[in-house]
């Protein structure tokens, strides 16, 4: 028996959330009803889709295959619905519409995406953009976001990866701190300074372990947030590695040790493979990449 689309929709919610309670909030049904619908789908297909345990619902091999097929159907249905909805409406051709959620590390989310997304919103009044700023890797299979920006290119999973732009980082400190502290002319001088950086055991990507390249063993003031680190530096907390594109937002900071440490990293746009059939998301991704590249270049040119 072929499953109904509503059954597949509920199946996808459980597959992405991995628990009935979380999925139930997403689809606005109670967990017991959702559990019965999943059980009915398994009976109709005569296959076990989930391994159930106190920890939640984990997909079986059959479940993984159905998830991929259901996501393809979801993308096709979304594209078809948008096409029908826009037919005969000239204003629909003027721009993108609907909701798009972007997951991004908080440095990009705080200092690049606000300008980019504000401009996209002006150009596309029917577009709703959500920025999720979290210091971790996003799980696109669970639909935590439609697109994610990462600082490294994932090598596993059904994902497509596009390099967006390179960006630069340097040590920086406030003018007040530098005036009141010991000389800082070489990397060895860092031993006599307070260092601001990431909480070591909360670094979620090797590309963010900037201080290891400088041989720094102790982080006196630490946070898992780039924005918090920047504010610690602005308050004279010490010396830390800063994105060059963030410096225009912190005029009291000055780059130091530029000849001793100059880092280059990249932003990558990461999407679920099934979404590459979605014309709307493809267009949004194209505009996003172009705008992020231009905004990083603009900000870095200001310093």
Automatic annotation (TrEMBL):
InterPro entries: LTTR (IPR050176), LysR_HTH_N (IPR000847), LysR_subst-bd (IPR005119), WH-like_DNA-bd_sf (IPR036388), WH_DNA-bd_sf (IPR036390)
GO MF, one annotated term: DNA binding
UniProt keyword list: DNA-binding, Transcription, Transcription regulation
PROSITE patterns, per the entry: HTH_LYSR
Presence of the UniProt keyword Transcription regulation in the record: yes
Domain of life: Bacteria
A Pfam family assignment: HTH_1
Domain HTH lysR-type intervals: 1-60
Record's keyword annotation contains Secreted: no
Family (UniProt): Belongs to the LysR transcriptional regulatory family.
Name listed for the protein in its UniProt record: LysR family transcriptional regulator
Source organism: Tateyamaria omphalii
